[in-house]
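Need a sequence for this fold. Nothing fancy.
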């Protein structure tokens, strides 16, 4: 069984999700957005697809034309009812593919913190994250697409997660982030941090203090999501 992953920058990878996927029996294959290509057939054949985050915005398709292809790939998975997980930019691409608006949020949300959950979110796999830290790192946000279910929120970002269908989940936050490799994020996004007036030291300190709890919660969420939300046809067989 294959998990096909669209990645935009090397340090924003599957992080703490990777060992959970491998333990579950998925072989992981990364595709570098804008550099490597993936055919429609390859994308559809994957048992699970993931679109990761990145520093570009959905609305920058004129500057980064590969985003047009990514939006089309997201829609292909969505309309074919095949499992798809979108994180940050990936979640925004899912929203856009379903016709929802993606736009600048109320402000940059960068750093470690919690999320609030709707009743449906609390009763599903995201319930594993309640009261636990996750990494926030975004400036844009999305509206909830028609027919999708809102699952999570923060005071700054009312729409933090939605489910489009079984096995199709968009997240604005980063439960996959590996706090043990936080320095790669701080260096890779140094210009954004400086422009936003966000102190790297605070993020670094929080990563050290909260990293173990974030890893445990993120992995518990993914294990439960794979078990409860991925249809049997797309799960590894014993």
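Here you go.
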């Amino acid at each position: 069984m294959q998990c096909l992953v669209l990645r935009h920058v090397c340090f924003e990878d599957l992080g703490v999700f990777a060992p959970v996927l491998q333990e579950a029996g998925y072989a992981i294959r990364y595709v570098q957005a804008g550099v490597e290509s993936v055919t429609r057939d390859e994308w559809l054949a994957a048992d699970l697809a993931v679109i990761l985050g990145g520093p570009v915005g959905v609305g920058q398709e004129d500057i980064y034309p590969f985003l047009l292809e990514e939006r089309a790939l997201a829609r292909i998975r969505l309309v074919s009812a095949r499992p798809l997980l979108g994180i940050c930019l990936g979640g925004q691409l899912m929203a856009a593919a379903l016709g929802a608006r993606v736009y600048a949020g109320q402000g940059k949300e960068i750093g470690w913190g919690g999320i609030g959950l709707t009743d449906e979110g609390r009763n599903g796999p995201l319930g594993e994250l309640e009261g636990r830290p996750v990494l926030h790192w975004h400036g844009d946000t999305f509206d909830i697409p028609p027919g999708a279910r809102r699952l999570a929120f923060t005071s700054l970002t009312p729409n933090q997660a939605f489910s489009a269908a079984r096995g199709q989940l968009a997240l604005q936050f980063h439960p996959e982030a590996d706090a043990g490799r936080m320095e790669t994020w701080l260096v890779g996004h140094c210009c954004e941090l400086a422009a936003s007036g966000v102190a790297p030291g605070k993020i670094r300190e929080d990563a050290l203090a909260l990293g173990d709890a974030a890893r445990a919660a993120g992995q518990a969420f993914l294990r439960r999501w794979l078990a409860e939300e991925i249809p049997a046809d797309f799960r590894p067989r014993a």
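For context: Helices lie at 17-24, 40-45, 66-79, 89-97, 119-122, 182-188, 190-196, 200-229.
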